[in-house]
Every structure is written in C-alpha cells, then in structure tokens.
Write a structure and sequence with these properties.
mainly alpha, 55% helix
C-alpha cells in the first residue's frame, strides 16, 4: 500500500471508499525503511520532552483583550466553528510576524 493524499474541506465527510481504505491502512503492518527507521528509545524520550515543553507553553496565561471587529468579519470567523477565537488569535500572530501584511493593513 502506497501513500495517498486526500484534500478534505471543512464539513466534508469521508466517502465509504475512503473509510474502507483508512481501516485497511490501520490494520497493515508498519514498514520501516532507511528513510523512516524505527524510533530509538532516546529519540522517543526526546520527542516526549519536546511535547511536554510545548504543552507547558500552551498553558501560559494569555491576557484577555477587547477589540472592535467588523460584524461581517466576525460572522465569517464564527462560521469556522467553536474554535473561532483561537483562529482569530492565530491570524493576528501570523499577521504581526509578517511585515508585508502589516504594510497592507496600514494602508
């Protein structure tokens, strides 16, 4: 079984064929190669440490702020689901880290 890539859109459900292929892949044995060797205990420990570090960073207290948002923009964000506030925060983080976006926003 080779690698398959499928683009899934928001709200799209997998087809019966896709579900069948996912279940078959889950039952298939893992095949390690030179490009993808089995992880060593040391590598797994390093991965676990990095995961713990990232979880701790996420637990940092983030200050609450109030901003005024265009009602149309707000409804578009809300249409993305219950995580829309996190998505807005990610968009703001991305924009502030990209000078070309800030330049366009400033007019």
């Amino acid at each position: 079984m080779g690698m398959t890539t499928i683009t899934v859109r928001v709200g799209q459900k997998p087809t019966k064929e896709q579900i069948k292929r996912i279940k078959a892949a889950a039952k298939a044995p893992i095949k390690y190669t030179a490009d993808c060797p089995e992880s060593t205990p040391e590598a797994l420990a390093e991965f676990a440490a990095k995961a713990r570090e990232l979880r701790q960073k996420k637990k940092l207290i983030k200050p609450a702020v109030k901003i005024r948002v265009n009602p149309v923009s707000l409804s578009k964000y809300k249409s993305l689901g219950s995580e829309y506030i996190s998505i807005m925060a990610n968009v703001l983080d991305y924009a502030v880290d990209n000078p070309e976006i800030l330049a366009k926003a400033r007019g």
